[in-house]
Amino acid sequence: MAAVSELSDTPNQWEFSCDLEVDLESEENASIVYAALVVDKELQPDKVKRQMSISDGKLSVHFEAVEARFLRASFSAFVDVLILATKTIEELGPGMEL
Amino acid sequence: MKKMIALGFEGSANKIGVGVVTLDGTILSNPRHTYITPPGQGFLPRETAQHHLQHVLPLIKSALKTAQITPDEIDCLCYTKGPGMGAPLQVSAIVVRVLSLLWKKPVVAVNHCVAHIEMGRIVTGADDPVVLYVSGGNTQVIAYSEGRYRIFGETIDIAVGNCLDRFARVLTLSNDPSPGYNIEQLAKKGEKFIDLPYVVKGMDVSFSGILSYIEATAEEKLKNNECTPADLCYSLQETLFAMLVEITERAMAHCDTKDVLIVGGVGCNERLQEMMRTMCSERGGRLFATDDRYCIDNGAMIAYTGLLAFAHGSSTPLEETTFTQRFRTDEVHAIWREKHESGDMNGLVEG
User: Fold this and answer.
1) Does the keyword Ion transport apply (chain A) (predicted)?
2) What CATH architecture does domain A16-92 belong to?
3) Which of A29, A38, A40 to mutate to test the interface with B (most CBs of B within 10 A)?
């Protein structure tokens, strides 16, 4: 998991951005996580934008925000539900034990 | 014949629950975990969501184990769509979406208020009662009419449970097992009735002014030994519950119904049940109420209500499995309550 945050040079409303890439180790897991997380839209689309994509079993997420605090809040909330989704697959997916 | 089975998730407030039920209302398992805050403090969305995140997966395993079922045997997955706090609601929604894809099962989104009503009906056997739904987040008088649960009266500000919970914070009563329970116990020792504002506006009630009044006067009265904390709990309960009984009675007159069903967390308060029972018996009707296992938020009520909808052909496409803080009781089309031609009933029993 790697996060990179940068300030862009051009004067831009979406000044703050950050990227997240997670290796989910299979195309199937990646598509499940993507489908589960894409349903919930950002609560303040005029302040934060989130774009997701999957390839080679990896989930890539790009965040853009108008202020650092919105970027931080959105990123943090997203990581919480991302971990929930991956844990659900690990614990209740194929080969689960009760 | 195989019975239809649903797995349900509830996490709209400070309880996270997972339940397994069959279509006839049999509860195979219904574990839950409550986020209990220190005395004097309420629960906040973010912390509550963190609580749910930590407990939801162990609860699913426990629910399946107790019910002695495997995911293969489940017909549908149900979750609370709303109303409730956003962040805690999201936990159930995410888990249900992932499980739906993992286990290849359909999803049914459920209205929390309607789930309380259906759970109350199946547990008590009340067929078509006037429903008083009282909890920490909701206060509504409801009756079924033409496909929907119609709201006859409701609070115009805070819920009755919220009023009680916040008064418990003033007295720094414990939140374990719930602030309302501790107020109820203390109220039994109350002897002196303190006059409080009584605010019924037509079919609606208002509690925030009463809370402000008692918050503003409690400290002074206690300091001057004018009354005890028990007297205040007793007086608050008597006043709030009298208001609820009044609007329920008015709804009964409107609907020409004699039966009353109380659901929601405040519904397990025995003093409220006693006052309502007195009113019902004076009108020649019956009171239906349940204990804390069913009254308080739980996964089984969501599973059962979702399964009712599913058995009548309704499910929610994955891309529509959202959650919402506001979701009124009367927005739901209660398809399972409509009268069907005998030919339509076949789908009900096939698993």
Assistant:
1) no
2) 2-Layer Sandwich (3.30)
3) A40
CB pairs under 8 A between A and B: 66
pLDDT band at B335 (very low <50, low <70, confident <90, very high): very high
Please indicate whether, in this complex, the C-beta atoms of B94 and A85 are within 8 angstroms of each other: yes
| ipTM for the whole complex | 0.91
Residue B99 distance to chain A (closest CA, Å): 8
Beta carbons within 10 angstroms of residue B252's beta carbon: 22
Give the residue numbers in A contacting B (CB under 8 Å), as ranges. 31-33, 35-37, 39-40, 43, 77, 80-81, 83-85, 87-89, 91-94, 96, 98
What amino acid is encoded at B322 in this protein? T
* Torsional sign, CA A39, A40, A46, A50: negative
Over residues B192-251, the pLDDT tens digits come to 999 999 999 999 999 999 999 999 999 999 999 999 999 999 999 999 999 999 999 999
What confidence category does residue B345 fall into, taking pLDDT thresholds of 50, 70 and 90?
very low
Q: Which domains does chain B have, with CATH numbers?
A: 5-117+296-337 (3.30.420.40), 126-294 (3.30.420.40)
Torsion sign across C-alpha atoms A69, A71, A72, A77 = positive
